[in-house]
Structures are given as C-alpha cells and as structure tokens.
Amino acid sequence: MTSASVTGTAAQTAKTKPHGTTITFWQGVAIIFGANIGAGILALPYGARTGGFPALLIALAIAGVLTTASMLYIAEVALRTKEPLQLAGLARKYLGNTGSWLVFAGVVVNGLGALIAYASGSGSILSEMFGIPEALGSFVFFIPGVLVVWFGLKATGRSEQAITIAMLVLILVLCAWTFIGPGIQFSNLSYVEPYFIIPIVNLAVFAFIAQYTVPELARGLAEHNPRALPRSIVVGMCATGFLLALVPLAALGMMGPDGITEVVTVAWGRELGAVAYYMANIFAVLAMLTSFWAIALTLMSNVFDRFNWPSEKAPGYRVAAILLVAVPPLLIGVFKLAGFVSALGYAGGFAGAIMSVIPVLMLHKARKFGDQEPAWKAGWIAHPVIQALLIIVFGLAFIYSLVSAFGLVPDGWA
User: Fold this and answer.
1) Closest of 88, 110, 83 to residue 98, by C-alpha
2) Angle between the 228-255 and 214-221 helix axes, to the nearest 10 degrees?
3) First to last CA, the chain
4) Alpha-carbon distance 314 to 99, whole Å?
5) How confident is the model at residue 168 (pLDDT cuts 50, 70, 90)?
6) DSSP code of 346?
7) Which domain holds residue 318?
8) Is 371 helix (H, G, I), strand (E, B) or coil?
9) Using an 8 Å Cβ cutoff, are 400 and 349 in contact?
10) Contacts of residue 137, Cβ cutoff 8 Å, sequence gap at least 6
11) Is 378 inside a domain boundary?
12) pLDDT tens digits, residue range 325-375?
C-alpha cells in the first residue's frame, strides 16, 4: 500500500472525526461489559447443558484469556497509530486491502450474527411477557437500540453505564434468590463430559468477542487517558467472565440440564415465580440492548471507515449506515431464518478465526511501522506461545463452525 493512500485515509479520518467522543474509564469498562453481556450469556447455559458446568468453566477460561490477549494487541496497535481508525482502517494501514476486507468481513459476520440473535431473542421474550406478536416485540426492541447508536459514542457510553448498573442489580438479586430460595443441587453442577468442551468453546468465543469495540475505546480514551485503555479492557473482561460463570451456575444448578431453555431467563424466571420471571426477562432484554448498542455502533463505524463515508454533517450517510446495520438482522430475526444459539455459534467461529490471526499480524507490523511510541505496550501477554495458542484455538473454533453449518458434527455437538 502506498504512503499516499495512508495519508489519504488519515486526512479523511481526521476530517470526519466526530465531536464529543471523550469517555471515562468506567464508561469504557461498561462498553466492553455491555458488548459481551448480551445474547451469549443467555445462550451459554443451554449450550453448556451437555458438557456440564466444569466444561463451561474450562471453555470460559480458554476463550476469556485468549480474547483478552487479542484485545490488548489491538489496544497497542491503536495507541501506536495517530489517526483514530476503526478495526478495518487499522488493518488497511498495516496489512493492506486484503487484511482490511477480511477484518471488515469478520466485523460484519459477528455483528450481524449478534444482531440477528437479538432480534429473535428480544421478540420471543417481549412476546411471552406482554402477549404481543414476536415481530412487534423485535421492532419495539430495535427502536431504542437504533436511537442511542444514532447519537454516537458518548451517548452509547453513558447509556451502557446506566443500564449496566441496572443489569448487575437484577442479575445479582436473581442469583441470590436462587441460592437462598430453591437452592442448587450439586449433582446438576458436578457432571462433566469433556467431549462437549469443543462446542462450548465455540459459543464462549462469541460471548467474549468484543475486540471490535477496542478502537472505539481508543478513540474515546487515547487523547486524555491512554493508559486507561488496557485497564478498561482487563476490568471489563474480568467482570464479563465472572457473570458468564455466575448465571449458568445458578440456572444449571437449580434446574439441571433438562430444564434449561434456549434463552435461559425464560425457564429460570418461571421456576422462581412471577416477580422473578419479569426480573429475569427484563435483565435479558437489557443485556441484549447494551450489547446491541456496542456492536451496532462498532459495525456502523467500520462501515464509515471501510468506505470512507463522511460521518459529520452528512445525515444521509448516517441513515444509510443505520439501515445497513439494523434492517437485515431485524428481517432475518423476525422471519426466523436463523436460530438463536446457531446464529451465535456460526458468528463466533468465523469472527474468532479472523480475530485470532489479524491482531497478531497487525501488532507485528505496528511495532515496525507505527506512527508513534505508545503510552502502553502489551508485555508478557504478547509472548509467541500465547499468540500461537490464540490462532490455534480460534482456528479450530472456525473449523467447527464450518462442519456444523454442513451438519457434519457428531451427535450432541450441534
């Protein structure tokens, strides 16, 4: 790629950098947490029912550590780059157009897979709660989702922070209610089938895959508090891992593998009673909403970056980007063209493969050809052994997604 093309990209980005993008450390944590705590946490108990809770813990540990490493690589790349580029733009700068298109494809597949799951899951939950058609429930969900994304990063950060607090209160109350009330049975948590760890890892990869939000965080933190970027990633991912383990612990422990529904809050709330039923499903909708905001904003920003669209004073382009982000998943979800868990698994496998290789390659290139010395560097987490494990594990998750899509996986893995 020529220096002129890089300069042109920088000029375009500088010209279109939106105002009011500064965020705080805790808003950064909330964006990471909100992006992760969405459909994945609602599907994990169902996806883990065959392997058991110990298998789920192993899968979460593998996926969580490796995904955090990948995110920290992207953080260093962003801090080495003067222009506030999105992931596709960073890939174009350091890896050329091929890398940029691969990253953009990963962003699109992961983002649309998640938004399809939110359209399907939110419609199902709101329909059951209020007796409305599922299509109407999905449409009602998408209205606040699109509105917050329209107003940009600062509005998303503030909304994520407020809703995340409400989510934490709801889920901690539900878990305490479960432990103190009906309680959990050790036999529901002690069984383990290691054979089923592979499909659980595939789902866990999706539950943790918030790499796409890192350039947005860098845009909001790099200028005034760059060292807060890696700290917000680590804190957000640790909080994610804790909650991703806590919810299956409570739900599986109380109901066992046969009682888990595809969206866990449906059965969980019923078991605890009417009040808990509404609390559980309100949590589910809020979890999908916070994840929708983070993923849709990142997806829209990458559309602007990849096609060099002007984002300031060009409402027509923003409308077009919103339509591209929101309409296809809404239609696919409403017409049930993809299942809730299957949409997450396929998206996680494909996006995981892209996001295992590309950040490693970008880190090596940025360390040689970056614009500036970064305020923070990935240390031991960038060891070659960890980089190799990242590529191998996420690559296997991608292979699983391919054979699963063609119905070639063993019984019980689908």
Assistant:
1) 88
2) 140
3) 42
4) 28
5) confident
6) H
7) 21-405
8) coil
9) yes
10) 122, 123, 124, 125, 126, 127, 130
11) yes
12) 888 888 877 776 655 545 555 555 666 677 778 899 999 999 999 999 999
User: How far is residue 264's CA from residue 397's CA, in Å, rounded to a whole number?
Assistant: 23
Q: What share of the chain is helix, strand, coil (3-state, %, to 5)?
A: 80, 0, 20
Q: Is residue 1 part of a domain?
A: no
Please tell me what DSSP assigns to residue 310. -
For residue 247, what pLDDT band results from cuts at 50, 70 and 90?
Answer: very high
What is the DSSP secondary-structure string of 8-55?
HHHHHHHHHPPS-----HHHHHHHHHHHHSSHHHHHHHHHHTTT-HHH
Residue with tokens 């199902």: 124
* Of 197, 340, 346, 196, residue with least CA distance to 262: 340
Least confident of 3-12, 64-73, 233-242, 335-344: 3-12
Side chain identity at residue 287, one-letter code: A
The helix or strand, by DSSP H or E, that contains position 251, with its residue range, turns out to be helix 228-255
CA distance 331 to 325: 11
Residue 412's SS3 state is coil
Give the closest residue to 66 by CA, choosing from 398, 385, 399.
385
- Beta strand extents in 75-119 (DSSP E only): none
How far apart, in whole angstroms, are the C-alpha atoms of residue 190 and residue 369?
51
Residues 77 and 170: their CA atoms lie apart, in Å, by: 37
Which 8-state DSSP code applies to residue 313? S
Tell me which of 279-293, 313-327, 343-357 is least confident.
Answer: 343-357
Query: How many C-alpha atoms does 340 have within 13 Å on its Cβ side?
Result: 22
Residue 264 belongs to some domain of the structure: yes
Would the CA dihedral through 10, 79, 361, 344 be positive or negative?
negative
Residue 7: how many other CB atoms lie within 10 Å: 11
How many domains is the chain partitioned into structurally? 1
Using the Cα atoms of residue 256, residue 257, residue 259 and residue 264 in order, give the sign of their dihedral.
positive
CATH of the domain at 369: 1.20.1740.10
Classify residue 414: in a domain, yes or no: no
Give tens-digit pLDDT for 256-272. Answer: 998 888 778 888 888 88
Nearby residues of 172 by Cβ (< 8 Å), 6 or more positions away: none
